[in-house]
Amino acid sequence: MRASRGIVGIALGLAAGLAFGAGGVFVKPLLEGGWSPGAAVLARISIAAVLLVIPALIALRFDLRPLWRARWTVLLYGLVAVASVQVAFYASIERIPVSMTLLIEYLAPIALVLFAWVRSRRMPQLIVLGGSVLAIAGLWLVIGPGGGDLDPLGLIFGAIAMIGVCVYYAIGERATEQLPPVALLAAGFVVGAIALGIAGAVGVLPMEATFTDMAFVGGTAPWWVLLLTVGALSTAFAYTAGVAAIRMLGSRLSSFLGLSEVIFAAIVGWILLGEALGPLQVLGGVLILGGIVLVRLERGDRTAASVALDIDLAPVPDGTTVDPPADPQRPRVAERA
């Protein structure tokens, strides 16, 4: 039973990586066809919210009081870890290849290590320092001598997405003490969609959409097919499969499987969009992934995420219960990398 559970968990983790990695490839034709990043993200997370709301209510046993008690966690998760990250990610892939944006975004664990070092004034473990140096060297290869003429705004938006992912990890350290994972996901999508809708209504965030067929893979595809694919497959399914993998395998092994997202994005982007990375960029990507693996091997009770962004989330009130995870390791719903 344990072996079969592990096989299913690995399959779900890889499936989540493939779904996440393919998301940028399917949404890029929308962005190039006239959709603004804000409109694309609003549509994506709205579709995911609709698909996950019923499973979330079932997980909460149709009791919304835990959502209210965890309102600040849900608010931060929806505004920063969902809406801001996705808008910055889409704005980045408008200008640079999808796989390159993901490589920058996946430097979040390294940023957390450096920030934790500054905040705690305690030197990280040698394996963590080595991984950080390796990843930074890889980033230099990706956007430096092998990067060619890259759009600076694309790199800046990728860095903003990385910062949002740092908060995403920090929330995931403790969020499941307050809410079932699927409830946090659904509530975060709802909050993010409402916030983006308000921002679009008041004119803060441009909301532009073109409801025509889009150029895709040498032909055309209906806009709604691409949008439903991103919302259902690369958002609702990907997040849910990732959470299920964490519950079966634990957060550490699942985080290694999450690195497959970059690989899948590079392969799918190359096949479908012709976005091939140069030899030095490929080498840089390998160094980044290797550095992140070393950082993930950090030993200790507290990870860099919990030290760097030590958000004081309210504890679960007395008398409130949350279903324990099946795996003895506490799952971290937001840990994708």
Can you offer a commentary on this structure?
A two-stranded antiparallel sheet has the order 1-2. Helix content is 70%, strand content 2%. It has one domain. The chain is an all-alpha fold and 337 residues long. It has helices at residues 2-32, 37-59, 65-69, 71-93, 98-105, 108-120, 126-143, 152-174, 181-201, 223-249, 251-258, 260-273, 279-296, 304-308; strands at 214-216, 219-221. The radius of gyration is 19 Å and the shape is globular. The longest helix has 31 residues, at 2-32. The chain contains 14 helices and 2 strands. Helix 5 (98-105) packs antiparallel against helix 12 (260-273), helix 7 (126-143) packs antiparallel against helix 13 (279-296) and helix 10 (223-249) runs antiparallel to helix 11 (251-258). Strand 1 and strand 2 form a beta hairpin.
